[in-house]
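Hey, can you fold this one?
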Amino acid sequence: MTYHSVNSVSDLARTFDELKHLHNIKWRQPDHPSIFDNTSFNRFHTSILQALLVSEKLSLIAVKKGEQTIAVNYSIISGNDLVFYQSGVDTSFKPNISPGMLLHCAQLRQARTLKLKYYDFLLSKPPTYKEGITEHSQPIYGFTFHKSSFTFFFQCWRNAIMKILSNLRVQFLGERHGK
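Sure. Predicted structure:
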């Protein structure tokens, strides 16, 4: 088994086509098309791939056994994050080792090499296999609905005070520990 990271435009179309093919095998059903069957979705991703590659914001990695592609992961680098986006896996491949897990390991290694801070799995509704990969998770969004402007005003002040206290604590602890 070998990892193949796309680093050139010449490998890009072939590897992305392999991703789509493998993804479609698993997810396409007669009454439920694959996401790559959606023309707009497919056109959008095809149009941004080369720009992502050139700007070093693309992580497209394949696992191969000989010439046979077993799995492909498609992730995007955003700031300090490597964001896992889509995959295609040959689920009929035996022995029963997880090509998807191998790809996540390769992308985690790539994130470390690039000195990125986070690898975002884009979790879906639990339970998912992704929950077993790491011991730590953190939500990336949230919202609060306020029934009145008074509670909104109070929450804004509370957040500002908490942020000031947090910054002071970091400054104090950082200076105290020689950082």
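The chain has four helices and five strands. Let me know if you want another pass with a different chain boundary.
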